[in-house]
């Protein structure tokens, strides 16, 4: 039996719960892994029976990775080590909270589109310490919905930073940089390519592609330590964001080698994307594709059947053309941020895990 005795900063509100987050029995790197009980002496404590031979690491959090302990100067604090055959009491003194690793680049302007937007960048654990290491990058649309409740639609974000932090620390996914591009009032025009006709004059999707490939990606590659080739670069999104991700991989096979089409809006413009790729062998090169659909994407039975039919058709096309693809029909899955965030761990594992 090992007792963990944690002392938190005096500024910590007494009502905030503290947790251990670590390997295996220490919470499997969930930010709210093992709850710590408050004691009258001001400490937070937990007693755990660790398996024989166990060796692991842990940090202290307030239930979110954004509220993980830091070194007291705002920098990353590296996990403590613990052994089952070590001291029976482990004392941990927390110097400070908030290890947030999201950078915000507001008012990012483009020469191809009329509206500025925010570009948000999540950096994986260890980024600040391993100065010579470079990282793969995952570009995601509707970036305001990824990390922050106060900007997310309906106040519910994907929690992409929390999920990625857990998966990286647990060793299930290698460290990867997440880049979110917020949408604008022109979202449908930017994410929805059309074939021809009067609507074509309002199609901004090609300009959006140029923004991402010619402006955002060079900025990210110049500002952060990235692996810039297509084998290390993914693009993804949900709904219309999933649709434009497929188009971008078709337009730029030399840029994007990984694609996440999450509940993609394949109905758009009378199934333009499906009609186009049905006659375009080799349309995605060797792109690795995650494709999914929730069982309850539409409120009507007819709508659900049509949505399922379209994604199954695309899955069959991907298989025919030899693309590495994981197609998933999500039990109980719905068309919202909570549902998409709930499978983000599997998306990261399929696209970026090397094992």
From TrEMBL:
Would the keyword Transmembrane be found if you checked this record's keyword annotation? Answer: no
Which SUPFAM superfamilies does the entry mention?
Answer: alpha/beta-Hydrolases (SSF53474)
Membrane-traversing stretches: none
Under the heading Gene3D superfamilies, the entry gives:
alpha/beta hydrolase (3.40.50.1820)
**Alphabetically ordered keywords of this record:** Hydrolase
GO molecular function ontology, one term from the record:
hydrolase activity
Span of the signal peptide: none
**InterPro entries annotated for this entry?**
AB_hydrolase_fold, Esterase-like, Mycobacterial_A85_antigen
Q: Which PANTHER family match?
A: ENTEROCHELIN ESTERASE-RELATED (PTHR48098), FERRI-BACILLIBACTIN ESTERASE BESA (PTHR48098:SF6)
Question: Protein name, please?
Answer: Alpha/beta hydrolase
Q: What is the source species? A: Gemmata obscuriglobus
Q: Top-down, what is the taxonomic lineage of the species of origin?
A: Bacteria, Pseudomonadati, Planctomycetota, Planctomycetia, Gemmatales
